Sequence to fold (674 residues):
Amino acid sequence: MNKSIPCVLMRAGTSRGPFFLREWLPEGDEARDQALIGAIGASDPLQLDGVGGGSTLNSKVAIVSRSSQPGCDIDYLFAQVGVGHQSVDTRPNCGNMLSGVAPFAIEQGLVSATEGTTNVRVYNVNTGSRIDVTVRTPGGRVTYEGEARIDGVAGTAAPILLNFLDAWGAVTGQVFPTGKRIDTIDGIEVTCIDAAMPLMIVRAADLGVTGREKPAALDANTSLLERLESLRLEAGRRMGLGDVSNSVIPKPVLVSMGESNDSITSRYFTPRKCHASHAVTGAIGVASAFALPGTVASGIGREPGSHSLVVLHPAGQIDVEVELKGNSDAATVERAALVRTARKIMQGELHLPEYVFSRPEATSGKPSTFPHKALTIIVPTRAGGGNDTMARIIAGKLGLLLGQEVLVDNRAGANGAIASEYVAGSAPDGHTLMFGYVGTHAMNPALQKLGYDPVEDFAPVGLVGSSSTLMVSHPDKGAPDLHTLIARLKGAPRCFSYASAGDGTPPHFAAELFQLSSGTSMSSSTFEGAAPAIADTVTGRSQVMFPSLFTAYPFIRAGQLRALAVAGPKRLETLPGVPTLAELGVAGVEVVQWYGLFAPAGTHISAIDRLNRALNAVLSDPEVIERFESHGARAEPGNADALRQRMLSDLARWRQVVAQAAIAPRESRQFALD
Fold:
């Protein structure tokens, strides 16, 4: 693996970060993400070992390539890299980094410059939206020198015009993803809007502040931050984004009156810290909510046409030109444009640290002082799903008991095989652990040949917990009950689509068994993990899913999903009115999802015992038990052998199911992710 790669470091808008051509980075998302983690220095909160700046504003990456989209010149993938934890999130977008994409692409030869100015159509891979970018190119060369000034950046530079064409509803599918322009959460009116960036907008006065405070004052108001985060978590669920506790979207925004009818004051959070100025995509969202009627940010009534609006922020203002179509409640935003600047800071070779790609050499397995460094729990799914949420619940508590930091590292891909192979090949010293579950250690191995052995390559540490599987449907686009769903499927096969977290995962197995037992056929949408799959079901793009209760429960409580049946042997205490599939005449669909902690095979028994004792103490903590139960899961402390027996029993069971039901891996059908 090449440890030295080309890189261009740029200030783009009010952000800064490295820009890469896709071909400069390793092939495959997993290797790419590890390179970005090393480039930024994500493991360290100060990011001293990389080019990051110790904050989310300076831990951003732009990846650029020639576009495969009709009518577009280049593709732009934005990545938000973790600060103090090894993570890469490609779900959000960044308009500030976008302002550097066109100059970078021109200088790298992806787009030919024209005399005077050059227009570049950018396709944002994160959101599936298009942006027209105009760059000054006198003499056919990019210039960064000019008279444009943007608040939050010293000096002046050449103006870069960003014209957002179709960013409305790009992430969730709807401008107002909850179906309302105002929602009430815990007594507070909020507007959930997806306009260039999913936002949750709140009137500052409703939370007891003016909305004109400096960022430091807002950051010091811990009760305000806690209230905002509580509202944001619920807003994320209602917007179909799942559990957003470890995601940066939706972004919370406090708004208040501006200085005129054409301005609004905004305090933008990222999401747990007030932005020193303002995000570009956030300004588009705030201006859209300000221009449209019926939101918590709405200004005066406006006629169709172009309107020059101003978003006031702590470092000054962002001028946004918004074009409206229609009147009153039928009004929509057709486009929005604004000016940014960028500057190339340096171009050269970026040297990645050795630890990014190299796994530690295996040791003899002899006991040593344990633990003597930070531990990492590898999660085989993307952030936001049930596995990830459980892992993060236990990680902080586990670290306190072990006296070392416990990091959570999401390594999604290949239905858990990438994470499993990584841990199986790691040093057996107890510092690299696997948050395995029934999918990685029973179902997927039963379905197909993998690059790891769930029994031989792992040392069980202990069970974490379990959660029943539900059959859920979209309340409007699905079916009101199971019998109606079956009748419609038999009358029109494949008229419903089910969302799957990938081949060899519980939602896949449960859906296949249901179709076999009920004599029906559904189409499928396959995703890398439960979080994007359930988001697809919440929005109605898929109508049916078989998630764990842990994953589905928040959406059921919010009325965003309807529980049709329990895919298990008995009804649940949490949802006593929901019958089992067997009660409704569909037998043989019993899928219980369990989760466990594993170490690489060969890990010394002393380390396993220490980990098991600490894990059991965490799982006996009343706060952890309550958090598990609030999501419909059950904590299950026990010894390592209990996990081994559960794994062996389920592995044998699912191998038998695969053989008898003739379930086989399907060709991957990857749909758009969040």
Notes: The two ends are 29 Å apart (CA to CA). The chain is about 25% helix and 25% strand. The longest strand covers residues 458-468.
